[in-house]
Amino acid sequence: MSSNAADRVRALSFWGGPVDPQPLGGGITNSNFLVEDGPRKYVVRLGADIPLHNVMRFNERAAALAAEAAGVSPALRYFEPGLIVIDFIEGRTFSESDVRANLPRVVDLVKRSHREVTRHIRGPALAFWTFHVLRNYLAALADRRHRLAAGLSRLAQVTERLEAVAGPTEIVYGHNDLLPANFIDDGTRLWLIDWDYGGFNTPLFDLGNLASNNEFDLAQRRELLRLYYEREPDDALRLKFQALFVASLLRESLWSMISELESQIAFDYRAYTTTNLIRFERALADFEAMIR
Q: Residues in domain Aminoglycoside phosphotransferase (predicted)?
């Protein structure tokens, strides 16, 4: 965390008195600080617009306000371009195993978010159409001559196949980044935080993203669909879900490949790319077996 970032947080007119921002680890898109101001605690997130990643801070603000109004995310207290202040939630940040162990609660939160945040979003708001995101990443990686550029044409063909199978879909306002650390359990209820990738999308992407980011096995993926749709998933639903599950892993892989070239945050993006590409290839093989 740079001293300049901490100085910017320290200088905000929002505070009631002098504060001492403390870095929060874990962020690979933003710089995050915990700030105590009198009896209150806040999280301050700093990050510029990242158009290549579909991250625009006006959109994050709109999403955070809608999520607050929907009762699924903590209150937004202050915003200026590149900086957002939200209430700190005293609770336990989930791990992958926590997400899997609390699947009914997690699915309920995601489903309520889809229903209620969609109703509360106001003003201009972005779409996060998965396949547009993938094509945009692929073009950017080709332009920048990424070290894995030789394989991009194949990934472009995979993207087209996945989109064809996904087909027409319902649209909700999705979170689109359901990492385990974005779920917090305060001992009474769950919260869903960090809306920088929020946007209109198919609900199946959030479900595929939840499953791919939290290492769901086949039985857990079927249970996820059953809980969300309140019925046993048929073959057609399972195939569409698998397409978005694969797309989520491809998106995470391409995101990491772009971050190798663009990000200034200290993180081993190369290793993250390798891990996600391995998981993507495994999921793609399962998808291809389903459509044979």
A: 22-229
Predicted local confidence at residue 210, as pLDDT? 98
| Token duo for residue 4 | 């300049």
Residue 22 phi/psi, 5-degree rounding, is: -110, 125
Average pLDDT over residues 64-87: 97
Q: What average pLDDT does the chain have?
A: 96
Alpha-carbon distances of 106 from 167, 199, 247, 264, rounded to whole Å: 26, 19, 21, 32
Contact 32, 76 (CB under 8 A): no
Query: In which residue are the tokens 């077996």 written?
Result: 289
Of 220, 201, 281, the C-alpha closest to 249 is 281
- Comparing C-alpha atoms, which of 135, 171, 133 is closest to residue 54? 133
Which of helix, strand or coil describes residue 35? Answer: strand
Domains delineated in the chain:
3-87 (3.30.200.20), 92-291 (3.90.1200.10)
176-204 per-position pLDDT tens digit: 999 999 999 999 999 999 999 999 999 99
CA-CA distance, 65 to 81, in Å (whole number)? 15
- Site of tokens 């044979």: 292
Distance, CA of 144 to CA of 103 (rounded, Å): 40
For residue 196, how many other CB atoms are within 10 A of its CB?
Answer: 24
For tokens 């599950």, name the residue.
245
Return the percentage of the chain with pLDDT > 70, whole number: 98
